[in-house]
Design brief:
Blueprint (H helix, E strand, L loop, with lengths): L11 E4 L12 E5 L4 H6 L10 H9 L7 H10 L2 E5 L1 E6 L8 E5 L3 H7 L4 E4 L1 H10 L1 H4 L3 E4 L11 H11 L9 E5 L5 E6 L5 H15 L6 H5 L3 H4 L1 H7 L5 E7 L2 E10 L6 E9 L8 H14 L4 E7 L3 H9 L3 E10 L2 E10 L7
Parallel strand pairs: 2-3, 2-6, 6-7, 12-13
Antiparallel strand pairs: 1-4, 4-5, 8-9, 9-10, 10-11, 11-12, 13-15, 14-15
Helix pairs in contact: 2-7
């Protein structure tokens, strides 16, 4: 809504004829105002070619920009997003939000009966104002206003919209868990589940850290043979494993670190922290602690304990894990693709500290 379209001289009655997009897996509900003339002509939400909604959402979720209606529905449902408008029908001049009169609000109850009670986000100020006026008392769900993706909101370029929406959509959308921490410097740090687009950063950091941390501890030929591609292999496998978790940490566009975890093959009812890496520039900011804490939270809801293995001599990592409650479990000889090392396994026997 609010797009710069040629406005007829008279008000017309507009009826929202698009069915809500939602299912039982939807974790957030995004509400617009009402379909613009271009959207009604296209037969689906945000059909104006200059509206940035689909480009923004694709960037936030790490997906390709959808072109067809079916691709748009798939983008929403695969990422746990429900979509509808605040207005069922109204009188309006063209697509001008300011001209809206005689509002009949949409029945959001039929959406929430499918999704359950989920967070509500409004695309722009008019949708937010009308939701609060007509629907908030019925749903009992407070909404959050996000910047309008309409071309009329020219002050917000696409990059800024992506940043604003990406930071605001909650951790519940499928595959894009976002948790806000503060670095030691007081800046916002986002921790989320990784996607394919993060593997390049992950592989490069993993290679750099292994070569620096394990110089003198592991065979030199093994370390020299590491590449970003083979270092990212384990992380790629985590993306394909439903029981694994791969988290990344960012401060704005700056990649800070990552961690990977999966079920422990040796210990029953135990989640195994397979790797934890922080960039050299981000050390001392609490990034490793924040990542570890998120793995602990995950383990707490599905396992009785959590484990980690370190090469003997990696004293910095050992101090971090012990400070956060891990205790010695055993010493053993590990094998890194034919390179032997003396290693130690530590275990968190209780996970309540990660509540």
């Amino acid at each position: 809504m609010g797009a710069e379209e040629k406005k007829p001289k008279v008000r017309e009655r507009v009826v929202q004829e698009f069915a809500p997009v939602c299912d039982a897996h939807s974790k957030v509900l995004i509400l617009g105002t009402a379909p613009s003339r271009k959207s009604r002509e296209a037969g689906f939400y945000y059909g104006h070619p200059q509206n940035r909604f689909w480009k923004m959402l694709a960037a936030v979720t790490g997906e390709e920009v959808p072109q067809t209606t079916e691709e748009k529905k798939a983008l929403l449902l695969c990422n746990g997003i429900a979509l509808h408008d605040v207005i069922h029908s109204c009188d309006i001049i063209g697509s001008s939000d300011s001209s809206i009169r005689n509002v009949e609000p949409a029945d959001l109850g039929r959406i929430l009966s499918v999704t359950g009670e989920i967070p509500v986000f409004c695309n722009g100020g008019t949708a937010y104002r009308l939701y609060r006026k007509y629907q908030e008392k019925k749903t009992k769900i407070p909404a959050r206003q996000l910047p309008s993706t309409s071309p009329a909101n020219a002050a917000w370029r696409l990059e800024r919209l992506v940043e604003g929406w990406g930071a605001a959509l909650p951790c519940h959308i499928s595959g894009q868990e976002r948790l806000i921490w503060k670095t030691m410097g007081g800046n916002d740090m986002i921790i989320r589940e990784a996607s394919e687009r993060d593997l390049q950063n992950i592989g490069r950091l993993c290679m750099e850290n292994w070569k620096k941390t394990y110089a003198g501890l592991l065979d030199e030929s093994y370390l020299n043979g590491l590449t970003p591609e083979n270092c990212a292999k384990e992380s790629r496998e985590c993306l394909e494993n439903e029981k694994a978790r791969l988290y990344v940490a960012y401060e704005g566009d700056t990649f800070l670190g990552f961690g990977a975890g999966l079920e422990d093959k040796e210990l029953e009812n135990c989640f195994y922290l397979a790797s934890l890496h922080v960039s050299e520039a981000a050390r001392g900011k609490g990034v490793g602690t924040a990542l570890l804490w998120e793995f602990g939270r995950h383990a707490r809801h599905g396992y009785g304990r959590m484990s980690v293995c370190i090469v003997q001599g990696n004293n910095g990592a050992k101090r971090l894990y012990e400070r956060l409650g891990a205790a010695h479990y055993k010493y053993f000889e590990d094998d890194f693709h034919g390179t032997k090392s003396q290693s130690e396994k530590l275990v968190w026997e209780e996970l309540e500290r990660f509540a």
